[in-house]
Design brief:
This protein is mostly helical. 78% of the residues lie in helices and 0% in strands. It has two domains: 1-185, MFS general substrate transporter like domains (Growth Hormone, Chain: A); 256-496, Growth Hormone, Chain: A. The protein has helices spanning 2-40, 46-71, 73-92, 97-125, 131-157, 166-169, 171-182, 199-218, 228-250, 264-293, 299-305, 307-327, 332-348, 357-384, 391-431, 438-444, 448-452, 456-490.
Length: 503
């Protein structure tokens, strides 16, 4: 008990700093992309600077969780932070776009380890009921990175600033500091496993989940939906997913043990996390673009205008953690959170070019509060539903499903918006006497400054079409949030710290 009291504070600080740094690189990059493309070239690869990390993060998270259960969360978290430092240096010193994309892919893989192992480390240090306080802090760390990313990115790439490379190099000393604090944690390693690590299962899971993200990101953009490339990739995703399921049922120590899904609480927590991730990441990615493209705000101003969503996420996450510690009950919070997500999407669904700022802020505040009440509590519920030896894989599974939902949502909703732009803008081009071709449409789309510099009729057409696409996103997302609410309401709650572990 004394060891935990002495070490939990610094270790928590280290875990929070590592989580903040790994999350920051994903939120800071969006604003820097136009500057990066201008310096390194490779305009056709710009999207992969952001997508590569999301892809590898989603694919690697379950493997890190399994490794934490097999070898202990402390050494694996230290390995993840070391990998993140190396990847950040590679990205920050990249001489070409291909090098940068590779560095970002490595960053994502290491960030998956940080996400999985921070939760697993705290889970082995403190009882389930007390973890509520820590999960609240994790939500604050994630929310703070979401707030700080756009603001810091804007400062770094402004004329006279340090430059875009510090989006990656700046997190190196911070991550090293985090690793030094994490080293203070007791090294509690489980008994040496007799079964070998399921490398083939890990590869199949990575291929199926990563292939799904690529399919949704590239379909209708890099190639048509009804094309041989789409059918080929869809076949690969389906086959590898089926093989992964079969593999996990046959090996003695699977990456995602099927036995965990016999627990109703664990299964529903993962399912709800998948759905909530779809809603949360869709709003966080596309609402800032709406504020810049449609309302004409600069990058830093758009970051500040996101405070209603990100601020309520931080506050609700912190309050939820404290209340869970006090009562040991958790179901009411994700249930309320999912209801707030439904309400927020209902407020944003009628979005138009003339929607007043207060309505947008109200919708964002509801989305933020709903996310803060939900995301970390579902991880906590998944941890408490399994045996102590499966805490790492339970944590990573809950986060894997959430990140997969986010990746699928971002890709699918981006495809919806792009399809709407391609459908609407040729008419505007024709009316202006310009070629109504796909190349003409692509020339209309660019940075918010480029959109604002277009002739007024074309700029208005872009804003109107983008708003219509985003409105469709919210309408599609609304039933997803309703399904998440239904899933949470179906779970049978057991007070934290009193649950019988699932075997």
């Amino acid at each position: 008990m004394r060891e935990r009291t002495v070490r939990a504070g610094p270790v928590l600080a280290g875990a929070l700093v590592a989580l903040f740094a790994s999350s920051l690189t994903n939120t800071i990059i969006g604003i820097a992309l136009p500057t990066i493309a201008g310096e390194l070239g490779g305009q056709d690869q710009v999207a992969w600077v952001a997508a590569a990390a999301l892809l590898t993060l989603t694919a690697a998270t379950p493997v890190w969780g399994k490794l934490a259960d097999r070898r202990g969360p402390r050494p694996m978290l230290l390995a993840a932070t070391a990998g993140f430092v190396v990847a950040s240096l590679a990205a920050g010193l990249a001489p070409s776009m291909a090098w940068l994309v590779t560095g970002r892919a490595l960053q994502g893989a290491a960030a998956g380890g940080v996400l999985a192992c921070t939760n697993a480390l705290i889970a082995v240090l403190v009882p389930a009921r007390e973890r509520g306080r820590y999960t609240g802090w994790f939500g604050i760390s994630f929310g703070s990175a979401s707030v700080a990313g756009p603001l810091l990115g804007g400062l770094l790439v402004t004329p006279g600033g340090p430059g875009w490379r510090w989006c990656f190099l700046g997190v190196v000393p911070v991550t090293v500091l985090a690793a030094l604090l994490i080293r203070l944690a007791p090294d509690r390693r489980p008994p040496r496993p007799t079964a070998p690590l399921d490398h083939l299962g890990a590869a199949l899971l990575a291929l199926s989940s990563g292939g799904l993200v690529v399919l949704l990101s590239a379909g209708g953009h890099a190639w048509p939906w009804l094309s041989p490339a789409t059918f080929a990739l869809a076949t690969v995703v389906l086959v590898t997913a089926l093989l992964a399921v079969l593999r996990e049922h046959r090996v003695p120590d699977p990456i995602l043990p099927p036995r965990l899904f016999r627990s109703r609480t664990f299964t529903i927590a993962c399912t709800a996390g998948l759905l909530v991730g779809t809603v949360m990441f869709g709003g966080m990615i596309y609402l800032p673009q709406f504020l810049q493209v449609v309302h004409g705000h600069g990058a830093m101003a758009a970051g500040l205008l996101m405070l209603p969503q990100l601020g309520t996420m931080v506050v609700s996450s912190a309050l939820t953690g404290r209340l869970i510690v006090r009562t040991g009950r958790w179901k009411r919070y994700p249930a309320t959170g999912c209801a707030l997500l439904v309400a927020g999407l209902g407020v944003l669904a009628p979005l138009s070019v003339t929607t007043p700022a207060w309505q947008v802020a109200a919708g964002m505040a509801l989305l933020g509060a709903g996310s803060g009440l939900t995301i970390q509590v579902l991880v906590l519920a998944a941890q408490d539903a399994v045996a102590p030896g499966d805490v790492g894989v339970a944590s990573s599974s809950a986060m894997f499903t959430r990140m997969l939902g986010g990746a699928v949502g971002v890709a699918a909703f981006g495809a919806l918006i792009a399809a709407r732009l391609r459908a609407d803008l040729p008419a505007a081009l024709g009316a202006a006497g310009l070629p109504a071709t796909d190349e003409g449409v692509r020339r209309l789309l660019g940075t918010p400054a480029r959109v604002a510099a277009l002739p007024p009729p074309l700029a208005e057409a872009v804003r109107e079409s983008y708003t219509n696409g985003l409105q469709l996103v919210f309408l599609v997302t609304l039933p997803v949030a309703v399904l998440a609410l239904v899933a949470v309401l179906l779970v049978r709650e057991t007070a934290l710290g009193e649950a019988v572990p699932a075997h």
